[in-house]
């Protein structure tokens, strides 16, 4: 904002314009839904995604009304997609506005990625810094698979696998999908079936986590002494329950 004060003014102008437009939209929508009172919410989500490895760009413009999808623009086909019958008449009108469609395509397929890349340059020190995860070995019961769980890593370009004697395992292994955390980091789990593993062979197994563009891997040896189980949780729960009962008495 210091380098480009007009950028802040642009956001302020956009917000004021959206405020006025939404007042008109929400009044029209209340009529279409036959709503005479109450609080109603109109939301829009506009933006773009850029993959710095493939160069692929995706833009999106979508509206929601009272917490449900209402209408969205397909920027490739330049046509609006309706999610509610009440949106059909709006689709027909907006599909006919060719100049507006082309403007949206230019804004979210070309200008938005340029702005995104500019933001990444400003925030490179923290936005593009790789963050290694906290890795734990988890097991529900002694007969359950052992889960190697990594959480808190960034970005989401990561792989994790089990290996035995240095060789990657494929049988008896279940790989989960990368999931987002609330703080913008990610988590991933890989399960290993240990029902056929003898106690003396446990240390031959390792869980390996690899994060893109980071040379050092996180390697955790299969070790019963470091596995976290539900047994300790149940014991803690019983103690807590007894403490509450004692206090209430």
From TrEMBL:
Q: Name one Pfam family in it.
A: C1-set
> What range(s) does the Ig-like domain occupy?
133-223
Q: Which InterPro entries match?
A: Ig-like_dom (IPR007110), Ig-like_dom_sf (IPR036179), Ig-like_fold (IPR013783), Ig_C1-set (IPR003597), MHC_class-I_related (IPR050208), MHC_I-like_Ag-recog (IPR011161), MHC_I-like_Ag-recog_sf (IPR037055), MHC_I/II-like_Ag-recog (IPR011162)
GO CC term (a single one): external side of plasma membrane
Question: SMART domains, from UniProt?
Answer: IGc1
Kindly state a single biological-process term from the GO annotations of this entry. Answer: immune response
| Gene3D superfamilies per the UniProt record, alphabetical | Immunoglobulins (2.60.40.10), MHC class I-like antigen recognition-like (3.30.500.10)
The entry's keywords: Glycoprotein
Output the PANTHER family linked to this UniProt entry.
MHC CLASS I ANTIGEN TRANSCRIPT VARIANT 1-RELATED, MHC CLASS I-RELATED
The entry assigns this protein to a family as follows:
Belongs to the MHC class I family.
State what protein this is by name.
Ig-like domain-containing protein
């Amino acid at each position: 904002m210091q380098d480009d004060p007009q950028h802040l003014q642009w956001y302020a102008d956009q917000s004021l314009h959206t405020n006025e437009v939404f007042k008109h939209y929400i009044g029209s929508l209340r009529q279409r839904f036959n709503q005479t009172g109450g609080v109603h919410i109109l939301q829009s989500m506009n933006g773009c995604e850029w993959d710095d490895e493939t160069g692929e760009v995706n833009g999106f413009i979508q509206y929601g009304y009272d917490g449900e999808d209402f209408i969205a623009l397909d920027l490739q086909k330049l046509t609006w997609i309706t999610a509610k019958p009440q949106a059909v008449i709006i689709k027909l009108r907006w599909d006919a506005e060719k100049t507006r469609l082309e403007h949206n395509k230019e804004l979210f397929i070309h200008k938005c990625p340029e702005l995104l890349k500019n933001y990444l340059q400003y925030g490179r020190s923290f936005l593009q810094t790789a963050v290694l995860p906290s890795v734990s070995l988890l097991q529900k019961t002694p007969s359950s698979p052992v889960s190697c769980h990594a959480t808190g890593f960034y970005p989401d370009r990561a792989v994790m696998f089990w290996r035995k004697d240095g060789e990657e395992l494929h049988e008896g292994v279940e790989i989960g999908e990368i999931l987002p955390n609330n703080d913008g980091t990610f988590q991933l789990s890989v399960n290993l079936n240990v029902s056929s593993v003898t106690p003396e062979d446990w240390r031959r197994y390792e869980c390996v986590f690899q994060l893109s563009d980071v040379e050092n891997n996180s390697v955790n040896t299969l070790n019963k002494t470091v596995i976290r189980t539900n047994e300790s949780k149940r014991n803690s729960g019983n103690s807590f329950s007894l403490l509450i009962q004692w206090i209430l008495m």
